[in-house]
Amino acid sequence: MAGASRERIEVVAAELLARHGYHGLGLKALSQAAGLPYGSIYHHFPGGKEEIAVAAITGCGERLGGMIRGLPDQAVVATGTMFEAMVWQLSDSDWGRGCPIGTPALDGATESAAVREAVAGAFAAMTSALAERLAALGVPGDRADHLATTIIAAYEGATMLARAQRSPAPLQAAGEAMTALVRAALPETP
Amino acid sequence: MAGASRERIEVVAAELLARHGYHGLGLKALSQAAGLPYGSIYHHFPGGKEEIAVAAITGCGERLGGMIRGLPDQAVVATGTMFEAMVWQLSDSDWGRGCPIGTPALDGATESAAVREAVAGAFAAMTSALAERLAALGVPGDRADHLATTIIAAYEGATMLARAQRSPAPLQAAGEAMTALVRAALPETP
DNA sequence: CCCTCGCTAGATCGATCGTTCCAGGGGCGT
DNA sequence: ACGCCCCTGGAACGATCGATCTAGCGAGGG
Q1: pTM to 2 decimals?
Q2: Res. A134: pLDDT tops 80
Q3: Of B19, B111, B157, the CB nearest to A154
Q4: What is d(CA A40, CA A113) in angstroms, rounded to the nearest whole number?
C-alpha cells in the first residue's frame, strides 16, 4: 500500500503526542514504535517533526469530529458518556495517554505557529461538530456554540486533572455537570 | 536576603512553565531571565530542573488557593470573573502565558512522577479552596467538591482553547456557563 | 534482462540540553 | 584583621535531539 507507512507514522505520532506532548515527541522513538527506519520518516514527511505533528493533530481532529457527528442523539444529550471514554483510555494506559490534541496544545503552541494552528483547527472541528448536534436537538444557534465550546473545554481540563490525580473523579464530575448543562439548554427534557 | 534569589528563580520558573511547559523550561533561559549565573541555580536547587519545577508549581498552587480564599463572596458566585483574569493574562502576553500549573501538567506528567504529584497537589489546593467557599455559600458538601472540580477543569480547558485560537471566546463562554452552574447550585439566588 | 524509482536503512552532523565541577568574591562573627 | 562560608560566575562534559546525507533493496515496465 502506498500510504500505509505514512498512515502508521501518523497514528503512532498521535499516540506519542497524547502521552508526551509536542516536545516529548521523539523522532527516534517514533520510528522505533512505528517499526520503520529513521530515514523513512523524512521521506514521508520532509517537513520533519512539525509536519508530522500537524498531520497527526489535524487527522485526530477530523476523526473526532466525525465521531461526534455519528453519535446517537441520546449520547449527545448525556454528554457525560464522552467523558467516560477518556476514563477508559486513561486507566488502560496507566494514566499516560491523554488527548492527542490537548496534550500538544499547551507545550507546542509557543514553539510552532503551525502546530498551534493545527490544534486550533482540530478544536474548531470538534466544537462545530458538537454545536451542530446540539443545534439539531433544539438549542438556539449561538447558545449551541457557547455550550459546545464549554463542553470541549471541560473535557480537556478534566482530562488534565484526571491524569495528574490518577483518578476518574474529575472526568466523572465534569461529565455529570456537562450533562446537566445540556439538559438545561434543551427546549424540553424528556 | 537569604531566600531572595531562590524566590526569584521560583517566580521566573513559573513564568517559563506557564509559557513553554516542563520540557520547554530551559535552565539556561531561566538563569538568564532571573539575572543569575548558571551555577546559582544548582546551588539553590540541587535537585535540578525537577526540583525547580516542583517548587514553582507547588508555590503557585498555594498562592492561587490563598487567592481564592481571599475573594469576596460575589466574585465566588460570579465565577466568570476568575476566567476574565486569564483573558487579561493571555492577551497581555500575546497568548503565550497560560496557567503555570496546567501547562506543565500534561507534558511533565509522563516525564517525572514528582512533577505529576506537585501538579496534583496544586490542583487539589485550588479545588479544595474553591469547594470550601462554595460550601460556605450553602452548596451541600459533595456537590461543592464536584462543582469546584468542574470549574477548575473548565478553567484549564478554556485556557487551552483560548491560547490555541488566540481568542477570549472560550474563556468567556466557559466562564458564563460556570457562573450559571454555581447559581443553579446555590440554595437561593438573590 | 536491466533500468528506474519509491522506499528502506542507518551513519553522521551540529546544536542544545541538563548536569557537574571548580574558582573567585564578599559579608559575617570572632 | 582574619578566616569561614554562602553565593556568584562560567567553563566543560556527556547525552540526546532534529535534521541531513548517501547507499542499497526490490517490484514493475521497456
Answers
A1: 0.95
A2: yes
A3: B157
A4: 25
